[in-house]
Amino acid sequence: MAARILHRLRHALAGEAGREEPAGGGGEAEDCPESSELEDDTEGLSTRLSGTLSFTSHEDDDEEEEEGDGASEELEEPPQAPGAAAGTEDGEWVSAAERPGGSLLTRQLQELWRRSRGSLAPQRLLFEVTSASVVSERSSKYVLYTIYLIRSGQFDKAPATIARRYSDFEQLNRRLRCRFSCDMASVAFPRKRLRRNFTAETIAKRSRAFEQFLSHLHSIDEIRRSPEFLEFFFLPDLQAAQRLTCTGMYREALATWANAYRLQDRLGVCSSGRFLLTLAGLAVCHQELDQLSEAHGCCEQALQLLEAQGSHPLLGPFLQAHVHLAWKVGKDKRRSEARLQDLRDAGLPLQQQPSLKECLIKEPLE
Length: 366
Fold this sequence. Notes:
Layout (H helix, E strand, L loop, with lengths): L1 H16 L6 H6 L3 H17 L11 H16 L25 H18 L5 E12 L4 E11 L8 E6 H14 L20 H19 L2 H4 L2 H20 L3 H18 L5 H16 L3 H14 L9 H15 L4 H12 L10 H7 L4
Antiparallel strand pairs: 1-2, 2-3
Helix pairs in contact: 9-10, 9-11, 10-11, 11-12, 12-13, 13-14
């Protein structure tokens, strides 16, 4: 209302001052001032709110939360008194809540913002079935589902992938229901079918069902941290990589160790014993393939994880491998040598310590 009065006063004053001028200028000034105000209001409001009504992944929540809260406060700000301008003294422009139709639009945006923030649950990890193939063996036929683990809101140059069949999902479902019966009561799992298991429609439905199944499991804290859930993803790769390393197929083993690394990274278990074993596998394969800088980097990462530990079985082998590789690639090895000396002073017989490769081969993976 205040904006309309000010607008008409300005045009009235302009009309009195311009009565002696030709009749063209005043007529245009009186041409539908309210509709032009509404059009300007739309532009001003959309400019101020650009980028505030978007919803991103959980990793970005801390940053987006501040931006979102600021936008909410701006929308909920009480309208200014009539005639008071938002940012100028002469009332040349006013807030959206004061302009014709502005308060209604603001309330609608506020309600949309509240509903959206309350209903959208951000996901840390997405599970996407990217392909499914029918596999025929000597006495069996099954569908193999390839699944990507994708961090929401991020682009992964090298994806973390698994390939599982229906019986693998069924075994996971059975193990979790035995241990987490209450949490699993609300988790849906696709039922077995006696026929038509290999039709495109059945495979497509099961693909979506497996995506939802894994997403639901990952949303439950206790299940997400359980060995049953975690090892479903990376234990088969660790076992396969260990077999390949034992048989000297280092290039194939390296690719499998690398995928196991990415899987554990996506699942957030980069400080576990399995992850240290994965770094050992990567270091050994890189070294056997004469990729010494990469092997040195894997040892450094492992030693950073072992910084606070003085008695881990892999500490001595990693230190010895790091010293050897640092000498080969011309890197500083004094810190690792000092830590090795501390182990000797503590009475650890380093001469009897197995090498990193021997530790890797002898580690039981069940």
